[in-house]
Design brief:
With 585 residues, the chain is mostly helical. The chain is built from 22 helices and two strands. InterPro entries: AA-permease/SLC12A_dom, Amino_acid_permease_CS, APC_YAT.
């Protein structure tokens, strides 16, 4: 520890403060000295980026207060272009994907209206826990890559390497699967060649991600508002239809909960066991539907006032998940019977949506095309999210020297363009659908996505637990955090163990007699050996150790947060202010 750090630490101890800065310089200066020889260069100099202090003077970088080694956090070249409304709508858009519009029909057939409602509610609660844990971590350490680098600081550099490359690999398969989905959805209207549709998606997504981050934010804002408008319209339509407001149609009420029943037709086997299997299968479908919600924090370093805006977005997820997801699934369970044969069809377009089935029964002809159009935007938006997640995860790995150094370079617009180009190259996997059935490819790739999403959630839970244990070991009060999530550390336990349970049991159907399939088993469980292989491989190669609780740099991050105060939220008055509070404040 240098003399300046010693004096600052002694002062904070004398004042009864919690900024235990000695733990940071002992651990992280040693790590950075492998990159920068402090005997050759001054502490504020990096041979790749030059004067570190000069880069801390703009609004796009946190100021490192005196007493903390300026090399503790490698300066980032990204720009803070995402505002409160952007981050709120990105969180919402990430939580509403094609799974709600298309996948919910299969869930209703297998688990029934009540089973589907319970299954999505359970995963919805898990998502809320994930977001609150991630908000606490990201408010304390708003860095690019979020959980990728949180694992570096709070757990083990080897875990950072493992989850970082899993977060890179996930979008490599999920983004192409979204382009495959779009190519099948378009067939509802036209026989346009799938290759042309995929090319359009690929170019549009690349252009959105390669320029200013604000462009991405504005595009996602529009996409989210289209989704919300559709969901509100579908909920109103469903209530009107259920209550007998459609001419020539009887009042349904809860009739379909009685006949054919509240818990569906079952799955794999007959009887009550089949109904339980159907209910359990909803968990994996729901995870895929919510995949991408963690994107809110992946670009924390590109968010204006991240310590204020990211927690607000996370807290609002609670209301929006239950209003848009649970209410819409409740309504659709009232108007579509679980034994409708059309629920079993895998058309890949709006024809398999339970909302469309209800519209056809009611004689509303225009609704399927409207749903199809918004589902296309949802699928494209989900792919767009994946590209952002993969590129920023790769950028985070490069910042921690776990990926080639050239991935640290950013464009003059503040975009890690080499990372975007690398991730975009995998989008061409979508052309696999030209040689095989598109729906089969989509289902296989989406299974891979669900398992990698659960791996990310598990690491978020572990990082959150380690943060709380480190605070207890160092005598730091939760009140000193920029944002302290409620019910901690219980939320972190729920995230860790519930996500692990769903991951381990998600492929249960392959073990049922007569259901074994190698590709299904691989897609359900491939992420597990991948994570362990990456973790132990890096650990053996670099001889990394789990960070002792006493050396987790909680006090340092708190000191950085105090040195970078953020202004309070200013709400506008009148209609504009009310509109803003409803959508993104």
């Amino acid at each position: 520890m240098n003399r300046q750090s010693e004096l600052l630490f002694q002062q904070t101890e004398k004042d009864g403060g919690v900024d235990r800065l000695q733990t940071t310089n002992e651990k992280h200066s040693e790590a950075r000295d492998s990159i920068v020889d402090s005997t050759t260069h001054p502490p504020n100099h990096d041979p790749e980026i030059g004067d570190v202090t000069a880069l801390r003077t703009s609004a796009d970088q946190d100021i490192i207060p005196p007493g903390i080694d300026p090399r503790f956090l490698r300066p980032e070249g990204v720009k803070r272009g995402l505002s409160q409304r952007h981050i709120q709508m990105i969180a919402l858009a990430g939580a509403i994907g094609t799974g709600l519009f298309l996948g919910s029909g299969k869930s209703i057939q297998r688990a029934g209206p009540v089973g589907t409602l319970i299954g999505y509610s359970v995963i919805g609660l898990l998502v809320i826990c994930v977001m609150l844990c991630l908000a606490e971590l990201s408010a304390l350490a708003p860095v690019s890559g979020a959980y990728v680098r949180h694992a570096e600081f709070f757990v083990d550099p080897a875990l950072s390497f493992a989850i970082g490359w899993v977060a890179v690999y996930g979008p490599c398969v999920s983004v192409p699967s979204e382009w495959v989905a779009v190519s099948t959805i378009v067939r509802y209207w036209t026989d346009l060649h799938a290759g042309i549709v995929i090319a359009i998606c690929l170019v549009a997504s690349f252009v959105t991600n390669i320029f200013l981050i604000r462009v991405f934010g504005e595009v996602e804002l529009v996409s989210a508002m289209l989704k919300i408008a559709l969901i509100i319209g579908l909920i109103l339509f469903g209530l009107i239809y259920d209550l007998g407001g459609v001419p020539g149609q009887p009042r349904l009420g809860f009739w379909y909960w009685v006949n054919p029943g509240a818990f569906g037709q079952g799955y794999l086997v007959d009887g009550s066991v089949g109904q339980f299997c159907g209910f359990f299968s909803v968990f994996v479908t729901a995870v895929y539907s919510f995949a991408g919600v963690e994107t809110t924090s992946i670009a924390a370093a590109e968010t204006k006032n991240p310590r204020r805006n990211i927690p607000r977005a996370a807290k609002h997820i609670f209301v929006r998940v239950f209003v848009f997801y649970i209410l819409s699934l409740f309504v659709v369970g009232l108007i579509v019977p679980s034994d409708d044969p059309r629920l079993l069809k895998s058309t890949g377009n709006a024809a398999q949506s339970p909302f469309v089935i209800a519209a056809e029964k009611a004689g509303v002809k225009v609704l399927p095309s409207i749903i199809n159009a918004v589902v296309i935007t949802s699928a494209w938006s989900s792919g767009n999210h994946g590209l952002l997640q993969g590129s920023r995860s790769l950028y985070a790995l490069a910042l921690e020297d776990k990926a080639p150094a050239f991935f640290r370079r950013t464009s003059r617009w503040g975009i890690p363009h080499y990372c975007v180009i690398f991730q975009s190259s995998f989008m061409f996997l979508a052309y696999m659908c030209l040689n095989s059935d598109a729906n089969t490819v989509f289902g296989w790739l989406s299974s891979l996505t669900a398992s990698s999403t659960l791996a990310v959630w598990i690491v978020i839970g572990i990082c959150s637990l380690r943060l709380r244990w480190a605070m207890e070991a160092q005598g730091i009060s939760p009140k000193d955090l920029p944002y302290s999530a409620p019910l901690q550390p219980y939320l972190a336990h729920v995230v860790t163990w519930a996500s692990s349970f769903v991951m381990l049991s998600g492929g249960f159907y392959v073990f049922v007699d007569g259901q074994w399939d190698v590709s299904d088993f691989f897609s359900s469980y491939f992420t597990i050996p991948l994570c362990f292989g990456l973790y132990f491989g890096w650990k053996l190669l670099k001889r990394t150790e789990i960070v002792p609780l006493e050396k987790v740099p909680v006090g340092t991050f708190i000191a950085i947060a105090k040195a970078n105060p953020e202004p309070p939220l200013r709400r506008k008055k009148g209609i504009v202010g009310w509109f803003g509070r409803f959508w993104w404040d």
